[in-house]
């Protein structure tokens, strides 16, 4: 199973980092977790396309994690000529969000239906809303969910994916909590969105100071990884985004608490497990 960090950015615009998303490739099964800014471009660079997706998994409805879902929906529709269903799984509220995306795309949908004889139907999307604790399969990938802690954002969920004996936890935004421990227990890779509170507090922006209490810091993520016996910690959604010469400083902070492999990188960093 390949875990590709297709977007390592955050809400803060960055010329080199797409918004949060992670692509899972296991044989012919491609899964996307979250769909942040620019995700379709990064999927193309990772050898994937919306038309190849067996499912999209959504951790929560914060805009940075879902703002390019409309691109995934439209591109999947056009690439499959309306002959395939796009399965989207997410927390309660996802169905309403997707319904409204489809409403926003109505003009485009009608233009293309009118113009292309080969397109007989609009986007075929099936949404499944999940409760924490739900388990399901997408082809030969087994997926379990648990509640994460990103208050006041609610509901938020994370995913644990198992394929051919390999396991990955892709958990979205969360502070340490029992749900994270459950999802990341003993995994081959634990992908955690992280911030550096010591650097965020230096940024003279009042709104940014509100993010401290609902994200894992680098130390938090490393402590979770150590507590649950994860083999690797992959950091993503870094705020503020480090330059490559700062990566050693970030990994050193994590290494104070976790002696497994620590991954930090640019978009398209790939972890093969
Ligand atoms: Zn969030
Ligand atoms: Zn986020």
Short overview:
By secondary structure, this protein is α/β, with parallel strands linked by helices.
Helical content stands at: 25-40%
**Assembly state of the chains shown:** single chain
Low confidence ranges: none
- Count the domains: 1
* Rg, nearest Å: 18 Å
Structural class: alpha/beta
Major sheet characteristics: 8 strands, mixed
CATH architecture: 4-Layer Sandwich
CATH superfamily: Ribonuclease Z/Hydroxyacylglutathione hydrolase-like
Average of per-residue pLDDT values = 97
Instruction: Spell the H/E element sequence.
Output: EEEHEHHEHHEEEEEHEHEHEHEE
* Total number of strands: 15
Overall shape: it is globular
The CATH topology comes to Metallo-beta-lactamase, Chain A
Bound molecules: zinc ion
Separate helix tally = 9
Percent in strands: 25-35%
Description:
The chain is of the alpha/beta class. It has one domain: Ribonuclease Z/Hydroxyacylglutathione hydrolase-like (Metallo-beta-lactamase, Chain A, 4-Layer Sandwich), CATH 3.60.15. Helices cover 27% and strands 30% of the residues. The chain has helices at 39-45, 63-66, 69-79, 94-104, 106-115, 178-184, 197-200, 218-228, 247-255; strands at residues 2-7, 21-26, 29-33, 53-57, 86-91, 125-130, 135-138, 141-147, 157-163, 166-170, 189-195, 216-217, 232-239, 261-263, 269-272. Strands 7, 8, 9, 10, 11, 12, 13 and 14 form an eight-stranded mixed sheet that branches. It has a seven-stranded mixed sheet with strand order 6-5-4-3-2-1-15. The longest helix is centred in the first third of the chain and has 11 residues, at 69-79. The chain is globular. The model has no long low-confidence stretch (mean pLDDT 97). One zinc ion binds next to α2.
């Amino acid at each position: 199973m390949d875990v590709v960090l297709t977007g390592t950015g955050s809400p803060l615009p960055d010329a080199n980092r797409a918004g949060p998303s992670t692509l899972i490739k296991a044989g012919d099964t491609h899964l996307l977790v979250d769909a942040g800014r620019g995700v379709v471009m990064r999927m193309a660079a990772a050898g994937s396309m919306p038309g190849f997706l067996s499912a999209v998994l959504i951790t929560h409805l914060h805009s940075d994690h879902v703002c390019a879902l409309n691109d995934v929906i439209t591109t999947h529709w056009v690439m499959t000529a309306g002959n395939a269903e796009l399965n989207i799984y997410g927390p309660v509220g996802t169905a309403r969000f997707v319904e409204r995306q489809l409403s926003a795309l109505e003009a485009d949908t009608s233009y293309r239906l009118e113009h292309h004889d080969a397109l007989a139907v609009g986007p075929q999307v099936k949404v499944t809303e999940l409760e924490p604790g739900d388990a399901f399969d997408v082809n030969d990938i087994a997926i379990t969910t648990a509640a994460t802690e990103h208050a006041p954002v609610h509901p938020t969920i994370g995913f644990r994916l198992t394929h051919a004996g390999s396991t990955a936890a892709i958990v979205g935004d969360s502070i340490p909590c029992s749900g994270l421990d459950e999802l990341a227990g003993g995994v081959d890779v634990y992908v955690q969105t992280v911030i550096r509170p010591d650097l965020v507090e230096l940024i003279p922006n009042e709104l940014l100071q509100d993010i401290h209490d609902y994200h894992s810091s680098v130390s938090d993520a490393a402590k979770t990884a150590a507590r649950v016996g994860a083999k690797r910690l992959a950091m993503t959604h870094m705020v503020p985004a480090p330059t490559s010469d700062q990566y050693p400083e970030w990994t050193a902070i994590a290494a104070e608490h976790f002696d497994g492999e620590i991954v930090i990188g640019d978009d398209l960093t790939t972890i093969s497990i």
